[in-house]
Amino acid sequence: EMSSPSLKTGAYILIGVGALTMLMGFLGCLGAVNEIRCLLGLYFTCLMVILITQVAAGLVIYFQKETLKEELSHIVGSLIENYDPLNEDERNLQDAWDYVQTQIACCGWTGAKDWENNAILINQSMTAYPCSCSNSSKDFQVDSGFCNLDTPVNGTATSAEWPVHEQGCMDGVEKWLKDNLGVILGVCTGVAVIELLGMILSISLCKNIHSEDYTKVPKS
């Protein structure tokens, strides 16, 4: 219920790249130590596949960002609507969302009003609010579950009366990405350069091994 085709595809890609990276490292070390050309060639191929995959993933994210944003909106909306601190089956996912709201200082996907769809808050006439959204100092030690309003008006309230952050997490995440764009691009570039260096070194080792094998061939 909490997934989407694009997110599943992304997860499978990350799992595949991780497994391929582990296998690649093992083959590269084995080929370099024992001077096995075929393993070095396989190491080069694995690096090239990983690099192409990373570039392809970046292009997909860039050109499909609106689709991904829409799917995330549905996922987060469903999570907020069914959020229940007593639900142990969804505890990890709910804790992850509480962490996002606490760290980014945001509330809901588009704003605190998203939480007005939560079944528990509806039953409490909105006299409680998500603690991870709070901008009040007294709630800083509580980062999950629901907190009660001090003075609800006539026993009912709205999200506008909650002491929570006004910024939605969608805007918060976009702002964080823009603020850290240089760091993200720098890390991606650094990883790509290391991969290219690995490809160059593997080709050089293969050529050296080939040259040594050629010199060892007895002349007739």
TrEMBL record:
Family matches, as Gene3D superfamilies: Tetraspanin
Transmembrane segments: 12-33, 40-63, 183-206
Membrane topology note: Multi-pass membrane protein
UniProt entry tagged with the keyword Transmembrane helix: yes
SUPFAM superfamilies xrefs: Tetraspanin
InterPro entries per UniProt: Tetraspanin/Peripherin (IPR018499), Tetraspanin_animals (IPR000301), Tetraspanin_CS (IPR018503), Tetraspanin_EC2_sf (IPR008952)
GO CC list: plasma membrane
Keyword Chaperone belongs to the record: no
Keywords: Membrane, Transmembrane, Transmembrane helix
Alphabetical list of Pfam families matching this protein: Tetraspanin (PF00335)
Subcellular location: Membrane
Family, per entry: Belongs to the tetraspanin (TM4SF) family.
Official protein name in the record: Tetraspanin
Organism: Herpetotheres cachinnans (Laughing falcon)
Biological classification of the source: Eukaryota, Metazoa, Chordata, Craniata, Vertebrata
